[in-house]
Amino acid sequence: MNILSNKCKNIYKSKEKFLKNIYPIKKYATHKILGIETSCDDTGCAIINDKNELLSESLHSQNLIHLRNGGIIPDVAQDLHKSNIEPIVFNTLQKANLSVTDISAIAVTLKPGLPLSLVVGMKYAKHLAHRYNKPIIPIHHMEAHALVTRLQYDIPFPYLVLLISGGHCLLAVVEDVNKFKLLGESIDCAPGEIFDKVARRMKLKNVPEYSKLSGGQAVELAAAKATNPHMFKLPLPLSEYKDCNFSFNGLKTSVLLQHYRKEVQHKVVADDLIPEVNDLCAAMLMATSRHLIHRTQRAMEFCHQKNLITKDNKILVVSGGVACNDYIYNALSILCKETNYKIFRPSHKLCTDNGVMIAWNGLEKWNRNIDVVSNLDSLDIEATSPLGQSLISDVTNAKIPIKLLKIKA
Ligand code: KG4
Ligand code: ZN
Q: Is the pTM of this model over 0.90?
């Protein structure tokens, strides 16, 4: 039932102690929040009680099916969510030895995400809420990614967060459970998206070792085998723009171009890979890390200038599927060491999409009586939804120069 290592359990214990000081009345668990996630291609569910204990969780990943299809086909994703939602929710309840009547509220992702996927979670949550007379707590998927680290570590507000996934890339200050300030976001695609597309073009799934992995995982493993990581030169995106926005399209095009040249040079045919595939993956990973560091460095400086992060709480949280990448995480750790920031990321299982982060966000809202909705008709899904209040033009106007930190390969 418990997905956590002993180390995490110890962290939980200190977390529990810490939260008891904040919510002293709730000494014994009385409330339980059920979380449902279906925003993209994972059907997830989890139950957390108000002692911050994860009672159970279940996840159905559609990754292998979408790998075979060459990407996510929204209708296929919806059909899979439809057939998996009920077994996943009931499996979660069963593992915790609970029924829906024992649940205090149902938290469900309503935005942002693929509409055909989101609607399955919403309809199922509404169905349970109607039938068992429970309130719903609507969840913003990116807010949940930003907050879930607080389940495992004592991280007080405000803190800086870098969210890197297959659908998003953004930097924000998390001021409270429902208060976010957006400092920068991707102007085109997300880092996970380019990893997935490039991995497909490089035919990495033809290597048996990578055949069941996401594009990002495959690129990370291939890059670790590079013998000449400096063979390919890739540009630093948006280097002339003194803001905290991101861009990955140019990087993707440069990688694909270098890949094509090597295919022509080696007369690579059909299912074969280029001989330099590991070096090209390493170059892409290094360029992505450099870009992420460059923008995060500026965000730290902006927070310092505007007093958004206090000197005694210099914390960077990195989350989202791409945060699983150890090379990227280590590069960000070097930046944090230079700037006296502490860095945190959730365990790998909680970086990628899951039901736990939705239940946790639901519990944080429940504890503060935020967004606990009984009028179910007022709830609907939203495909796109900005995170918090945008400070992007303030960041741009501040024109903060940054000397890029050098990270060794
Ligand atoms: O957060 P997530 O599960 O779903 C979205 O909300 O997008 O992130 C999935 C993304 C995929 O693009 C996948 O390739 C990427 O995270 N990813 C990684 C790694 N593991 C997953 N990217 C780089 N390195 C990894 N180890
Ligand atoms: Zn996500």
A: yes
